[in-house]
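One thing: mind reviewing this one?
=====
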Amino acid sequence: MTAAASRSNTFAALRDQLADAAVAFAGLPGAAGDILAGMVDDVDRALSERLEIFPVCHHSPASGLAMVRRLREKQPRVVYLELCEDLRPLLDELRNCRLPIALQAFATEIEGFPAEWAPLSVVAPITESSAEYQAIAYALDTPGVELVLVDRSTDHVFQWAPTQEPAPAEGAGEDGEPGDDGLHGGAVGLEIGDLRPRFAELEEHLLHHGKVRHWSEWWDQYVEQPLVDADYDTYRQVMVMIGSLFRRLRRGSTVEDEDRERYMWTRMREHLAANEIDAAQALYVCGAAHAASPVAQFGVDSTAPFEISPRSATTWHYGLIPSSHSAIEAQFGLAGGAVSIAAATWAKGLRRGKLQSFQLEGQQGVKKRAAKSLAPAIPESAVTDQLSGFLSRPPALDPLDEAELLEWSVDIVRLARRNGYLASTADAIAVFETSILLAGLRNRTRPTPYDFQDAAVTCIEKDRVPGRRDVRRLCEILLGGDRIGQVGYAALPPLARDVLDRLRPLGLDLSKRTLQRALLDLKATPELRPCSDLLWLLRRLLPQDALRPIMGSRGLGETSIQESWDIGLGKYQRSLVELGYEGVSVEQVLEQRLRAAVSAPNATAATALAAVEDALVYLRSARLADELGTRAVELLAAERTVDDAPVVLRRIRVLLNYFRSTATGLPAWCERFVTAGYAHYCTLLPTAFAAEETGPAQVAAMLGFLFGMENLALSLGCDHTQLELAVLQSHPEAPAKVALLWSARFQLGLLSMAELRQRCDAMLANPLVLPTVPQYVSGFVHAIDPAPGLKPFVVEVLSKAFGSLPDAVLLPWLPKLITTLKDQTGELIPGLVREAGRTFPGALPAVDAFVPPWSAESTPTATPVAAAPSGPVTELLAAHPVACDALAALLGYAGGWQATRPAENRELTELLARYPATAAALAGTFAGTQGNR
């Protein structure tokens, strides 16, 4: 009899039964009959393959227990595992970690992929109860056993991803499920055996008739529990059948899955042939859906070729990161607590079956066990049909374990009371009875952890949650908790080990996931200064919650005497590990990031100035600061917008003040930046005034740069005429920008205070302009930065508005004025308030007699007759009144000629006589001016 004939006869009876069932159900064989017959064929094909296929479901206790039994029976010499082949070197480092742990491949600089996909990250979580970990532990700790990873590389994971779609979303798994940002980040999740029907109608049907809430509960009730104690043949046949069913019902393209299967079978045939290994001595561990593969490359006897594409030029970094039950549940779309319940089922199965799991020697969190030699391998037996009996007999009803349920009920009440719930013994009894009731309603005699969880929520959680944890979360903690893995010191990348070594003087256990307080008295213990520098550097590179300064600061020219830190590096170990993929020290990583930031296509002058500041604050590198500053000059000259003008102004002011306080003074790039910025903003000023998309804050920042740095720019060769022409060519229409233009002209001397006051008075007197007064005021407040002398005038404008406008006009635009000032000029309001405090009286009795300064200036009064000295200077001034008026206007003095009484000129005459050189110089100046005229 041929192998094919034997295969067809093994499940012939089952195939006929399912065909008859399809006809009875649908009236015709049709699609249902094809699916059912195809499932039987898939099972027959997978079990008849010479290379034994072990189908698994990810993080399944039934798969783990079956793997332990099979490894002790078969004792394979080669284990082929469905896992990215380039992750193989990481498996040896699992000895230095505490599970759960995730294998990670990470790439920051990518080639051959869309730029918006960066960074690329792939994780493969591993738990102790998973079948893959049992296979890994067996292969690594058993002499003479080889472990071979045969799945596509991490580079091919993204090569085969659809290029028309963006990279997996932040926190998304391989199948689009949300991830956990705390541990796995935005990595693509790799799982061995994704057994979930991507067929919404089928899943809804199964949940409804199974009387369960979610897929994890259905899988535990109808697959995990029946298969936990099943024999090996039954387990294999059922898993392949389920994988075949879900594969055939899965909607969408299966090209990627089929390519993965072709890839794996090609790799296995190559390895078997190269090492002359008998297929009977090997074991192939893969997902149940891949075991039911229809590709032509299936089987070691297949000759169908498959060409494996080369990897891209992307440089991949590999490492281990901590994982947790909750992170796995979130990334792969499992119900909360599903992995913890699976771990509890795994532990119970080991005890009930008196099995000893495989564990890596020396692994953290693993108790030392006496080494046990494997029993002799059991000879292979012929494949028999166990599937028919499994499908035809009703599920075995486990008897009620009252002791276990009673222990759960008492413990959950104790845990609830610790977390603030008013629970009592009566609640424990209620939880016990309700669990049994719910199990009966769901057609099971033994309450599952899900039944117990629902009962606890119903009986204990009344109207509110008094603490941080609700009852459902407390049940998860009770049934196993959210175990969190940890990467050991020896398995960390060099950078992470260097960080821990340099922070050792703090005397803290940085492996703990809790926050630890570090107190640094840098004056008494200056040897802790390097630790302080490293902490500030890590705060710049790691998430903000990893390191939080409670006391102390770090900026340009700042030096702390005492510092206090909350350190949580243990909780953010993943970020520290990924930092190690970028360099060998944190200083090198920051330098690379700063260079990359200023070289990016979207880099701006503000970005480069921020990089300069970081280089000086964290690295104290003048050389790097000069390099980044030179790049800032280039970026500023190439910009065509002024959106970042406020940021540029703020950062360059800080840097100029810092360099002026140093012994070396301003570097050359700072001088070039000022001159380039002066010319750049003068050129763009008319356009910025007219453009609607440019706000008043940007225009005010440009004016602040031009006026604030004009003296330095002129000393470096810039031309003041360029600024005057730019202001004269500006013709804004927006009220806020008009106010800014008036302020600029006033600052340049093109508009006197009297003219500015006259324009504002006309604005307040015009009913058509009154609705826009808040915008004008906003422009004037913005102008305080480039023209600080306008603070009294802004106070005057606001005082006139509130003092002269009627309530019918004032009240409608008062809310708009407040919101405009708050949104646009919030940082300038405190200075304006201080100016108002200097202007108005500080005591209530003085208010009645208060006369505003602008009222005194504007009220015409009789010109007093002042005494004037007589002598050559007086005669010169009287002889050339035009020159005298011009000089007075230049000096900012306004006024007219007054009549004088010679009798009262004695003091002035004595003053001029006492300083003859000054009087002669002034007379010469007037004479020269008159001559030029």
